[in-house]
What we know:
Distance between the termini: 20 Å
CATH architecture of the largest domain: 4-Layer Sandwich
Radius of gyration: 25 Å
Amino acid sequence: MCGICGMIQWDGRPMDLDKLKAMNGFLIHRGPDGEGYYSNTDSGATVGSGGTRFEPALLHGHLRPAVGLAHRRLAIIDLATGDQPMPNEDGTVWVVFNGEIYNFQELRRELERLGHAFRTRSDTEVIVHGWEQWGEKAVERFRGMFAFALWDERRQVLYMARDRVGKKPLYYVLGKNRLLFASELKAIVQAFDDLPRVIDLTALDAYLTYGYVPSPHTIFEHVRKLEPAQWAMCTATDFRVHTYWRLRMDDAVRNAPEGELAEELRALFDEAVRLRLISDVPLGAFLSGGVDSSAVVASMAVQNPGDKVKTCSIGFHEKSYNELTFARLVARRYETDHEEFVVKPDALAIMDRMVWHLDEPFADASALPTWYVSRMARQSVTVALSGDGGDETFAGYVQRYAMGRLEDGLRRKLPDFVRRNVFKPLGALYPRLEGAPRPLRLKRFFQNLSLSLEEAYCRDMAFYFQPEDKVRLYRPELKKQLETSRPQDVLLRHFKDCPSRDPVTRAQYVDIKTYLPEDILVKVDRMAMAHSLEVRAPILDHHVLEWAARLASSYKLNGRVSKYIFKKMNEARLPSDVLYRKKHGFTVPLARWLRTDLRSMAEETLFSKDSGLAEYFQMETVRRLWNAHLTGRQDHGTPLWGLIVFEKWRRIYLEERSQGR
């Protein structure tokens, strides 16, 4: 795992190597083991800390455009010779790469048969020779997690690519005569003072809906993110983006015998885990006590019976949030080298550092335990395997998916007239009863029945503020500027790409395209890399994803049993108390903490004279939310946390312009 950055200038100016080094400096946490630079200037290129030098390539006697690539290294494979930027044999192709290509040994053998000569044992070199052999289609052969940028001096083209599900990030700025790119937003905006830090208000609107800023947008107007499964090619006259992989989820599903499917899945899953055990440094695993991480640990232990797996778990004093009991069951069964950390409210002393590392406003409070489990793991390993992606791949969000299926069945039976003219007003009139027993919390159910499947999904994913909430929250000027803003469009465009008519499959598809890469994987990447830890997610191997995508949804959500076939596959490996207990999300007791230990921090952030929230929001509405939350009769913890995080981010990135945390 590493950090990458670079720039191209097309206007004839020389490369500003100081700026390139400044960008790279902001990524040191992603790669503390070394740095390397390439520039096609008279000074040539230096690879690694000591390294090999190459003479610059010439184009008709001129050094144009000016190209600079930089890399921060977290050494994991080929510790001795894997430095970057890495060239081909004659120094005309250079790459900087963040991630892992798990099938690199297989690809290397194929490329050697085709006549390519390798100088290292690194997976990075496969990218260089793969480009020479297959061009932009090389990325379709890579099995792994990655973001990379490759400069081809002969063709005068910069090629950038991101892995299929978006495990590794890539930001870029495309100007009239300049392209900048980096693994993290901070490396761009904090190294270049001439870039305006102007908030994209439609991105802010999306953040206050979903808790993150969806790709390709960022919180800043001029910066973009390359989306998962995309590559981009940039020349002096053209910039184009192409989607190279699409997950097929349609109604042409498999209905093989259950036992046969479980065996197929076990073989695929174990292979995905085995590939992610390739490392020249110590590795371990996150163990939450849930099905997914427990299955990963079990596979690691079964495949390497002589090695004791290092496992790390997070817990809470609040019993309803604590899963350590289940993590211990798995740790004892496989005799792992187990370590635990209990998160308390005072753990949020690191909140400003956490916000800085996240780059953009990001309101998923489970970033906090992810920070601490990453810190704990890094004390003994450099690589950790995780269970991320299980919920999206095998339909683990049982409440949301099951309700979506129920609602869709009722929609098909009820006439539109009844849905629109009975349930819509009923949903509007029914009170919000956040603190009431679940059967009395029917407002959303009534509202959803009056909507289409797609519209209801968009409301369900609006965890922070619904449109009617924003009417009271936004200042009149902001409302006017956002008259045409439709945060739901980013979700609806993915619904259009999914041909399946099954409600569970359709919701899964959009989750895989949005919530997974924009929330789950951002959280894991930033919090782990803040501690120079690489996290690998075998469930998100694209072979596993493609296999699961072809299953009938009944093999994933069977009645009220979520991840049905995944659990069946693990019955011989995991205790039933782990497999078939009620699902518990990886989250924190935020509502209670805001009323108690975090109250003073929250009030200072929201209401002090230093707060900038009044520029955007009607503070009397924020005050009403806060006071209602403090009474304990209503739970506004999630939307309030979204506002707190935004204000923390605003101070760090717009006022302090912090240079590091």
